[in-house]
Design goal:
With about 110 residues, the protein is mostly helical. It has two helices and two strands, in the order αββα. The chain is rod-shaped, with a radius of gyration of 22 Å. The relative contact order is 0.17.
């Protein structure tokens, strides 16, 4: 069966969308790991009297309230980025699904 140039173009677009979707999923997973690490750090801060943070390659003493504030701020940023990536994923999945339906209809004809 011979595919039209339009159908071939749509197939290529679908492949690109799927690659981009995989990249977004990897990015979301990475962000979720970061979020988990932040949550663990916040939990540990609640159970200790002394706190340190790493700046470049040096560990320096810091106050627990200051570290909690920094971690909470980072947590908000990571959560916002996760939501953004999830919205992009949803939009991309919808595009891919629509494009896939078009391609399948052209192939069936």
């Amino acid at each position: 069966m011979e595919l039209t140039p339009d159908t071939e173009k749509k197939i290529q677009q679908l492949q690109v969308l799927e690659q981009n979707l995989q990249a977004l999923q990897a990015q979301r997973q990475n962000l979720q790991v970061q979020l988990s690490e932040i949550d663990t750090a916040l939990e540990e801060l609640g159970q200790t009297e002394k706190a340190y943070k790493i700046v470049s390659n040096i560990m320096v003493a810091s106050t627990i309230p200051k570290l909690k504030s920094e971690l909470e701020s980072r947590k908000e940023i990571v959560e916002l980025r996760i939501k953004t990536v999830e919205k992009q994923e949803k939009s991309m999945k919808e595009k891919a699904s629509s494009l896939q339906e078009d391609v399948l209809q052209h192939i069936k004809q």
